[in-house]
């Protein structure tokens, strides 16, 4: 095939390739956006010649256990293997030049291995970084460690980097000055007090002046919102049952406004007096919307 030609495997074509064991025929250069979206396959073979695995190509393939990434692939798109919860290892070969955010955001990943000759990416203890380890790109959700101290070389934590991570404590050094909005899904965050951009309190993650609430521990059933907060990252409530937590906030504060807007249960804290506000909530209709 002429190297200038592109042949995209579309979702319609992908559905003709079988149900559980999929062998993609030779001749394709791209696996298109959401080509295998929400399929029940267990394994897929990608042939040499494919250069691009596009955004969401295998999104929600919850039973996918095995996929090979051939040496011809140079780009893996955003959310390419997102929610592939049976996929536990990923190997990044030497010729991959770009990886989209959230490419490996799933609940089963244990290890990411990068070829040492790759000039763009690296791995340490199964965690994916850019080459010089200034950006933490993906932390395997099932890595067997209850806490993680982010290296001092890291200045940025990518969007969805800790997606679904089974981790209790994350220590953020003063070198980190940029964190993606959806970098964390739970976990107690502890920020070095010398960090110029972020702060923490009781495991909650804020920007430096605590006007933006970025992350809360996943198991929190009482959520305290300081008066200083004027912005809340909606993703920290993604898919939550609003009947299983209560927001504690101050009257006429942003937290109060937020709780009323999303019809969440809340308690007002004013001068030591707590007033319970009871709201009838339909759990199926009032769950915080998923992204």
Automatic annotation (TrEMBL):
The family database entries (InterPro entries) matched by this protein are listed as: LRR_5 (IPR026906), LRR_dom_sf (IPR032675), Surface_bspA-like (IPR053139)
Q: Which residues form a coiled coil?
A: none
**A Pfam family annotated for this UniProt entry:** LRR_5
Q: Which domain of life is it from?
A: Bacteria
- Any idea what this protein is called? Leucine-rich repeat domain-containing protein
Q: Which organism is it from?
A: Paenibacillus mellifer
């Amino acid at each position: 095939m002429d190297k200038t030609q592109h042949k995209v495997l579309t979702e319609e074509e992908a559905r003709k390739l079988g149900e559980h064991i999929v062998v993609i025929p030779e001749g394709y250069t791209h696996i298109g956006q959401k080509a295998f979206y929400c399929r029940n396959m267990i394994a897929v073979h990608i042939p040499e010649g494919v250069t691009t695995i596009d955004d969401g190509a295998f999104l929600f393939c919850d039973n996918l256990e095995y996929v090979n990434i051939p040496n011809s692939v140079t780009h893996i798109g955003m959310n390419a293997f997102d929610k592939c919860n049976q996929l536990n290892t990923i190997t990044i070969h030497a010729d991959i030049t770009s990886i989209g955010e959230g490419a490996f955001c799933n609940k089963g990943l244990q290890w990411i291995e990068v070829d040492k000759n790759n000039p763009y990416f690296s791995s340490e203890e199964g965690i994916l970084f850019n080459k010089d380890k200034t950006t933490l790109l993906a932390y395997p959700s099932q890595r067997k460690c209850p806490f993680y101290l982010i290296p001092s070389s890291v200045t940025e934590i990518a969007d969805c980097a800790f997606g679904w991570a089974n981790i209790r404590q994350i220590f953020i050094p003063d070198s980190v000055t940029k964190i993606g909005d959806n970098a964390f899904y739970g976990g107690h965050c502890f920020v070095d007090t010398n960090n110029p951009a972020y702060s923490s309190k009781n495991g909650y993650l804020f920007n430096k002046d605590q006007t933006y609430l970025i992350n809360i521990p996943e198991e929190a059933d009482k959520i305290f919102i300081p008066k200083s907060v004027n912005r809340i990252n909606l993703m920290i409530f993604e898919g939550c049952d609003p009947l299983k937590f209560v927001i504690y906030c101050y009257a006429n504060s942003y937290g109060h406004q937020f709780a009323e807007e999303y019809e969440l249960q809340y308690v007002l804290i004013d001068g030591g007096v707590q007033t319970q506000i009871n709201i009838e909530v339909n759990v199926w209709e009032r769950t915080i919307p998923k992204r």
